[in-house]
Amino acid sequence: MLRDFRGKYWPSIFTSMTKRIKHLSILIALSLAGILCLQGYLLYQDFQTKKVEYLQDVNSILELTAEDMNDLRRKRISELYRNDLLDTNITRLEYDLDREEGPQISIIDALTNSKELSLRISADNIHPDSLTREYLFNRLYESLFGFRNGGLIAYSVGSAIGERAMSYRDTLAIDLGEFKRRLDERLGSRSITTNYKTVVLHRDSSFVAPSEQTIVSKRYNFEHKGTKNQVLLYFDNPTFNILQRSTLILFTCLVVFIITVWSFYRLIQTIRKQRRISEIKDDFIDGMTHELLTPISTLKIALESLEKMDNLTNTTRSKEYFDVSGQALDRINDIVQNVLYSSLHDGGNVKLEFEKINLNDLLEGLLDYHKNRTEGDLELSLQKLENPWITSDRQHLTNVIHNLLDNAIKYSDSKPVKVSVVAKRFANEVSIVVNDNGIGIPENEQNKIFEKFYRGNHFQKNINGLGIGLYYVKNILNRLNGRIELLSSSQLGSSFRVSLNTNKTDHG
């Protein structure tokens, strides 16, 4: 009934589960894609904002630096003009501080000895204590020289001074080295490290950016050599430099992205694991059913046969049926004990009872048991110990060897089936090696055979089993101060070795 039930109903359940998992995976993938798209949009918007801020910083720095350099040039022209006024080879200054109308300063052309200009200050506009020649000269200088609306105003008091003032305006250049030094310093303070180029051009000329990735600043007045010049900066592809301004949000998005992808991966892994656990559980139930059905059927047939016999008069046949029934019950007992011990081990509730055991007798009894219960050609051999006495838990050690012998016989398609057991004693341990001529274990599955419920894919469909035998063996041997190893495995057979430490005893 169970097989019919599984064959009739369970495939549709698995199909439905697979569809649900597929749909869930698609929804998760779409959600992940939506999150990534949203992050991408936010990063793009942040980049555009940072790009605008970047250009604003460049413009403010260029404007400030250009104005600084313009001021330096004006100061230099001012110094030169002032020096010309004080140069006696060009002009001669005459001061009259005692005039009733007010103090007066006059400029005399040194070459022609003619008066060029006089500046008189009303006595009402000056305090007598502050009246000095220097004061009068400064008032004269301020009246003659200045910059208005970006242009030089230098009232000529003579052709010589006028020509010199205009030549300063037209020829004096801005120190481009100092200009770049100040630019670099200010750009660096704003973390603008992209290489840039400076362009000085006429106010009426145009400028075309070299590429679409180029960022071009605004144009600012640049009084270079007196012409109507302007200066601008352009940066080739400063994308990385702009992205550096978004380090925090980029890092945050990266962390969120990694966590999201990792969570998605873990979720898919968990779904697959749960699906695998479900499949393992179903395989276990199926295997348990098949494992129990055979000995139960055998037991039922034997009991029915005994029931039909006349008062058990045929003792020979009766003994045969009793032997068959006993073997069937032993098999049922083995299956139940394996499941029970595996469950107890997971809970840490295994109770061990150590005692002196004759290992040779234990091994001989197990070989006889399997020889009597196995149909077909079977060749068993045993290499005994000279000193067979060990201390261990008889029941669990019996189950360990029984599982190895059962697997050796079950997973063999050779005729005859050959199994050898070799027991050896060393200084601190006893080893029991079980060799067979079975089908072997593929190399890619050898590291998985001791996992709970694992059964090799190459024989899972053809040979009954629960996938807990070797799991139980490995874990119970840990409690018995022993271990199990797969020494070798190929298409010619496998070899397992059980090692028991004779120096330690676990009474847990």
Question: What does this entry look like structurally?
Answer:
Helices cover 53% and strands 19% of the residues. It is of the alpha+beta class and 508 residues long. Among the domains are: 58-171, no CATH class; 350-501, 2-Layer Sandwich (Heat Shock Protein 90), CATH 3.30.565.10. The chain has a five-stranded mixed sheet with strand order 11-13-14-16-15, covered by helices on one side. Strands 6, 7, 8 and 9 form a four-stranded antiparallel sheet that branches. The chain has a three-stranded antiparallel sheet with strand order 1-2-3, covered by helices on one side. A hairpin with a 3-residue loop joins strand 13 and strand 14 (429-436). The chain starts with a helix and ends in a 7-residue tail after the last strand.
Low-confidence stretches: 1-11
Main sheet record: 5 strands, mixed
Number of strand segments? 16
Strand order of the largest sheet: 11-13-14-16-15
* Computed Rg: 52 Å
Query: Helix/strand-derived class?
Result: alpha+beta
Percentage of residues in strands: 15-25%
CATH superfamily of the domain at 350-501: Histidine kinase-like ATPase, C-terminal domain
